[in-house]
Structure formats: C-alpha cells, structure tokens
Write a structure and sequence with these properties.
- The structure is a single chain.
- The protein is mainly β.
- About 5% of the residues lie in helices and about 35% in strands.
- It has one domain (about 5-45, about 70-255).
- It has two helices and 15 strands.
- About 30% of the residues are buried.
- The model is unreliable at about 1-5 and about 20-25 (pLDDT under 50).
Length: about 260
C-alpha cells in the first residue's frame, strides 16, 4: 500500500464465508474473507483550510487564539460493507447447505500475522510482564513516542464492549481495551466498537460489525454520515515515511455469527 493511503481512510468491501465443518461451529476460528477489494482512499488535505494572517505593528503585544489539525502518523482507518454466508461445507469445498445473511453480524479482525493463534487469543494487556507483547513493545514497533497523544493507550483507553467469541475463545464484556469510531465526525460511545486483542505475538485489531441488532437490516451511518457495516483502526508507523514507501501489511479475517 503506497504512502498516500497509509493514514487516510480506505474503503473496503468484504465478502465472507464462515466454514462450519461439524456441529462444534463455535470452535472454528475466524476465516480469511473470500474477497477483499479496496475501493477508494483519501487522507488529510491541508488545502481545505485557507491561509490565515495578522498584521504586525511595532510596539504592540497581541494575544491570539489558534486552532489547528495535523494528520496522525500512527493510525490507518478502514471502513466499508460486508456480505456473507454461513455454510455447512466439507473439506473439499462442497456445500451441504448455507444461510445467506443480508446484514451479517460478527467481527472483523486485522493482524500483521497471516496465521494468528486463534486458540490463544486474549485481551491485549498494556502491562504484560510474562515475556509477551505489551504497550512498550508495540509502541516501539510502530515508533510511537511515549507521550504521543495518539498513542495506543491514549486511543484504546476504555473497557466497554459486548461479549463476543473468537473461535473457541470467549471475550467477556468490558474486559479488553476498546474505543469507538466516530459517526458524522462526532465522538460517540455506542456503535462501531473497536477492541484490542492479541495472540501473545501480535496485536489483533478487532471491530464488531454493525448493525448487530436482530431483525434490523438498516446500516449504521459512519464517520462521514454514510451507511456502512464496519469501521476499523489499525496501527501504522508513519513517522519515517518516504514517498512511495510500502506501508504495513495487514491480513483480514472474519467471523460471522
């Protein structure tokens, strides 16, 4: 992915199938999506803001107030829609039965590991001292300064999410570091929940698919007030970016319920 889309918002459409081999469907791990198509990408544009000026006069001391924005160098945003089917399928890809869902429910995961250890998934612990990854190792990985206002712990500073399942693992409500993506450019604390998980070797960025209400086929509106199924934050090192450089590769996984 080129640098002009590292920290912008990338629109994705996911088509996913969760494979159910036997009756123990809850134990099956998240699966890679059948398709993953980037549709558009954009980033902060300083030319959207007109130049501001003041006249200086000899002898004057003037108090001024400024507001400003600067693009993050630590995060990439993904958003989009997902269509999916839960299937009863054998190991050779033959479908015994399927259940199409026009408004899928479940989770979308992104990790730099192409094969996470789903059986060992747990909440990411900022203070892990057992030799696993922690806040210090991961902020160093992405070259995020200790006092950065857009650091990992400054972003995922809440413990508020619903109970969900990652393959055989139960993630208990309000147990993991979490945050909410904006709706209509406005902070909120109800929808588009993002949760930080790990398999002890890598971060697994997780978002709960909206709309997650039974018998409700209406999409939520996202950060730009357009309807969408998910919004997902992933960490990225943009502090040493160079023109045309390749960004961090993330592998996406889906679990439908």
């Amino acid at each position: 992915m080129k640098s002009n889309s590292w920290f912008g918002i990338l629109l994705l459409t996911l088509a996913a199938i969760v494979i159910v081999h036997y009756a123990n469907a809850a134990a099956d791990p998240p699966a890679a999506p059948n398709t993953l198509n980037p549709l558009s990408s954009s980033r902060f544009n300083s030319s959207n803001y007109a130049s501001q000026s003041l006249d200086a006069f000899a002898g004057n001391v003037t108090q001024i107030s400024l507001t400003a924005e600067s693009q993050t160098k630590a995060w990439q945003g993904y958003f989009g829609n997902i269509s999916g089917t839960i299937v009863l399928e054998d190991n050779f890809g033959f479908t015994f039965y399927d259940w199409a869902d026009a408004e899928p429910k479940g989770e979308i995961y992104a990790s730099t590991n192409s094969s996470p250890n789903w059986g060992g998934v747990k909440c990411f612990d900022f203070n892990d001292t057992a030799g696993n990854i922690n806040l210090t190792t991961e902020e160093a990985r992405y070259l995020i300064p200790d006092l950065a206002v857009d650091g990992i712990n400054e972003t995922f500073r809440n413990l508020s999410h619903s109970t969900f399942f990652v393959g055989p693992v139960t993630i208990t409500a309000n147990s993991c570091q979490s945050t909410w993506i904006y709706r209509n450019s406005t902070a909120q604390q109800a929808d588009f929940t993002n949760v930080l998980l790990t398999d002890n070797t890598t971060l697994i960025f997780t978002t709960i698919i909206e709309n997650d209400q039974l018998n409700n086929g209406t999409d939520m509106t996202g950060y730009n007030d357009n309807p969408m199924d998910f919004q997902l934050l992933v960490a990225e090192d943009g502090h040493n970016e160079t023109a045309g450089a390749t960004g961090t590769t993330y592998y996406f996984f889906v679990e439908l319920s």
